[in-house]
Design a protein that fits this description.
Layout: E1 6-9, E2 12-26, E3 29-34, E4 45-49, E5 57-60, E6 70-75, H1 83-86, E7 94-97, E8 112-117, H2 122-130, E9 136-141, H3 150-157, E10 161-165, E11 174-175, H4 178-184, E12 193-198, H5 200-212, E13 220-224
Parallel strand pairs: 8-9, 8-12, 9-10, 10-11, 12-13
Antiparallel strand pairs: 1-2, 2-3, 2-7, 3-6, 4-5, 4-7
Helix pairs in contact: 4-5
Bound molecules: flavin-adenine dinucleotide (FAD).
Length: about 230
Amino acid sequence: MQNELSIKSGSHFLFRNKVEGQIEVAEGKFLLTFEKQFELKAGHVVALTSGADIAPRIYSLCCGENEQYMQILYDLKPEGQLTPLLSTLKTGSYIYVSKPYGSFMPEKEMPMWWIATGTGIAPFRSMLQTGYKPQILLHGARVKDNFYFEREFKTALKAAYIQCYSGNEGVGDFFGRVSKYLEQKEQLPHDNKYYLCGRALMVVEVRDLLISKGIPYENIISEIFF
Ligand SMILES: Cc1cc2nc3c(=O)[nH]c(=O)nc-3n(C[C@H](O)[C@H](O)[C@H](O)COP(=O)(O)OP(=O)(O)OC[C@H]3O[C@@H](n4cnc5c(N)ncnc54)[C@H](O)[C@@H]3O)c2cc1C
């Protein structure tokens, strides 16, 4: 059902929105571009669905505050309810999207480390496009095509952009997972903020590691894609 101009689902109001384009950036990973109906802050998420018959899922926006369109980067879950439908959307299709919201937001003037795996890179692209820069960006992936937006990050961050590669093609800057990279670091700055984004396993493992290395809990900010 895509006739309604807005739908309500739980605590969310979602508004009909037009798809501006979609590309498969790597196998089973899609970058969906749609209308910008509301202002956003870097690090915000939206609730989104293809129609009133499917409960909305949450997605990190991966576009800057001043970009013309909104974008999300998502993983196709073949057995999932929503992403198989999203992956068939074409330019001009309708979706339903909430106002942007969230608390995974950068603090001005605060030195930051950004740590992501897979599509967890999305909010950091939003921050980068908005003008924020980290001391270090660690991006973990098992397939080299999953270092999304590689060129943008390399150009902007140079040696501060570190690809942690845990596959077997011999690419990346560091061989191993982001947790291994952090484990091998003798010292980590205690007064930086550490932003973690990705699947629960990585976020929990890295959070525990940072705490064991003396990073105060309040300096660790997490966004879990569950
Ligand atoms: C704050 C936040 C931000 C997020 N941002 C992103 C993002 O930027 N990009 C992104 O890709 N994802 C993101 N997610 C995850 C996203 O919200 C969805 O969970 C994801 O896209 C899967 O949606 P789906 O409807 O296709 O799968 P679902 O139908 O929700 O299923 C998810 C998985 O569970 C399995 N499953 C479903 N039902 C069962 C069952 N009964 N028993 C066992 N297994 C089952 C499915 O096979 C599938 O693999 C985020 C989540 C949160 C909370």
